[in-house]
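REQUEST FORM: STRUCTURE PREDICTION
Request ID: SP-0412
Submitted by: Lab K.M.
Chain count: 1
Length (residues): 748
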Amino acid sequence: MGFRPFIYQLASRYGLSGFVINTSDGVTLEIEGADGHIDSFFKDIIRDCPPLAYISSIEREYISPKYEKGFQIEESKRGDERSTLISPDVCVCEDCIREMMDPFDRRYRYPFINCTNCGPRYTIIMDIPYDRENTTMKKFKMCKLCKEEYEDPQNRRFHAQPNACPKCGPEVTLWNNKREKLNCDDPILKAKELIKKGAILAIKGLGGFHLAVDAKNHKAVVRLRKRKRREEKPFAIMVRDIEDAKGIAHLSHEEEKILTSKERPIVLLRKRKGNPLSSEVSPKNRYFGIMLPYTPIHYLLLEKRGDIFVMTSGNITDEPINIDNDDAFRNLKDIADYFLIHNRDIYLRSDDSVVTFMGGKLRQIRRSRGYVPVPIFLSERLRGLPLVLALGGELKNTICLIKDGKAFLSQHVGDMENLETFQFFLLTIRHMSRILDITPELLVYDMHPDYLTTQYAKEQTDIPTVAVQHHHAHLVSCLAENGISGPVIGITLDGTGYGTDGNIWGGEVLVGDALRFRRRAHFEYVPLPGGDSAIRYPWKSAISYLYKAFESDLLNLNIPLFKRISKRDTEVVLKMIQRDINCYPTSSCGRLFDAIAAILGLRHRVSYEGQAPMELEMISDEDIKDYYEFGLEKEGDRYLIKISDLIRAVVEDVQKGIGPSVIAKRFHNSIIEIFKLLCVILRDEEGINRVALSGGVFQNRIIFENLSLKLQQEGFEVITHSLVPTNDGGLSLGQAIVGGLRFKEGLI
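STATUS: Completed
RESULT:
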C-alpha cells in the first residue's frame, strides 16, 4: 500500500536517519534527528498517509542515538510478513487515469495501469509475502522501464506488485461466443460499439466477470433477463461519473462521497422520475444500484457522457461469479454474445460490494470487493480469543477468522445451494487461513442441522466445534463491530433461523451479551406449510396467517389473494395446516411480511429472496402515520406477539377498498410500534437501556429508520450495523465471537 516508500520520502524531507521494515507487529521504524523534525514527521504520518493505508495505532519508544547517516527501506523477513494486513482491491487512482488518457504517455489507453495507490490486491494474491511471484502477475516479467519504477523509492510504483505496461503486461482480447477471436485494433472500443448495438457482453474485471448491456436498450435488458434466468431481481448499473448518476438518481452529499470512494461499491440510490433507463433494470423498486468505474477497462468503456451499462454478476443465477476464461466461455456462452477477456488470472473471486446510506451512516448489504479483507478491530475484552474459524450461515454466506484482536470476514461467498458455491466456500477457508497464517483452534457453525456448513463442521474431527444459535450470532455481530460487551435488549428480525426449541425463529427479542442470551419476546408460532416452499410461494404463508385469524372462514374472504390462487390449491394447503402435515412452526418476521404482501395481491410467488417484503416496502405511503392494533400475551417470563388482530385489521381494510399503499404503511408502523413497546416493557423489567438491531429485516428503510428514531425518542441508546451487513452476511462475525468467548471461558 506504499507505506514504506511514504515513510522513506517523509524521513528524507525532514533529514531524518534510520530505517523502516515490515514486521509481524506491523510497520517498525527507527528514526533519528532533531526533536522538532521528529514531531513534524509523526504529525505528517497521520495527516498525509497513503490512500490505502489504515493506521490502527502508533507506539513510540525513545532509544539512545546511533548517529546513523541516511534512511533505508529494509527487506522484510518472509516469516514476519505473514501477519501483515492485506489491502483490498480498490479503484484505479486519478494519477493513473490521467496517464492512461494522455496520448504522450507510454501507458496511453493501457487497461491494466496501476500504482502503489490503486489497483488489484486481494483477488490476485496467492500467498504471503505479497511479492510479485506470489501473485497472478508472476508470469509477466517487468520490462526495463517498469523494473526501474518498481525499484525506485521515490516513484509512485515502488513495489507495486501488479506494475506493468503494454510492452510487458497483460492484454485484452475480444471473442464471440463460439470462441472465435475478433481481430480489431482496439478490443475495448469495439466491445463498447457492440454493447451500444444491443449485444450482451461478458467482461472480465477485477474480481470476476460482469454481464453488460446498454441500460437504455429495453430489448437488450429483457434479453439479458431471459438468458440469465433472472426474472425480476434488480440489475446493478455503471455510470461514467457523478453527473451521469445525478441524471438518473437523487444523491445526497454523503451518497456522493460513498459513490466516489476508493472502494467503489454499488450504492442504492433513489430513482429520478422520467429517467431514460429500461423499466426492466430495476422493476417495482424505487432505487437503482449504481456504481462508478473502478478499473481502467471500465473507464475506457464509459468514456462518453450518458453511457450507462448494466453490470451484473457474470454467472448463471445462484452460482458463483465466473473468474476463469475457460469457465466463462463454457458457462456463459448461452448468455453472452461476446467476451472481452484478459490474461491476468483472478485467484479469488470477489463480487461487487453493495451499500446504502441509511439512518445517517453507510450500511453494508454485501461486503466484498473494496472492503475485504480489512478486519474488524475488536474491543480490549475480545483480544485474548483463540484462533477461531466461523462458517457463517446458508444464505449470503461469509466466513470469519479471528487473530490478534482482529476479525477477518471473507468476501461474499453466496447462497450455499450448490456444489460450485460450496467449493468456493472451501477455497475461501484455505486461502484466508493461508494468507493470515491461521490454523484454527476452534470451529463455529450455525445450529441448523441441514446447513452445508453444519455438515462440513461435523465432518472435522481434528478440531473442537461449537454450534451457535442464529439470532444470538446476529445480536453479537452487532455488539462486536460496535465494541459493546452488553448486556443489551436485542431485536433480531429476519426470515429464518433455527431455534433452541427446534422451531424456525425470526421475530425475536433477546436479552443478553456475547456469552449468553434469554428469549424474552417473539411472534407467536404459526405453521409454515411446505417449509422452504412457503418461502418461494408467499401465498402459502398467507393461508397460514389467515387461518390463525379466521380459521376455516378464510375461504369466504373477498381479498386479492384468492383471485390469483385457485380454491383447490387453497384447500390443499389448508388441510396441511389443519392436519399438521409437512408444517413447521415459525415465529419469522419475514414470513409475516410475505403473508401481508400476498394478502394485498402484490406477490404470490417470488423469484428472489426478500422480494415480497421489498415490494411491500416500495409501495408504502410515507405520509401514513397510524397503525393496526396488536396483542401481547405473557407466558412465564416471555411475551408472545399475537398477530390475529393485526391480520383481521389488514383484511378489513382490504375489503373496505383501502389502497395497498396505505395498508402497507400501516403494517410497517405496526411492526415499529410492537417492538418499541416491547423495549419499553423490558427496560422496566431488566434495567437495560441499550437496544441492538440486527437481522435482514433491518435492510428495510422504513422499519430501520423509524424504529431507531422512536427508540431514541424513548431515551434508548440504539446500536446498529455499519461495518458488516445486518443480514446473514454478518453472521459469521457473531458466531466467531460467541464461540471464541465460550472457549476462552472454558464453557466448551
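NOTES: DSSP finds 24 helices and 29 strands in the chain.
Reviewed by: T.R.
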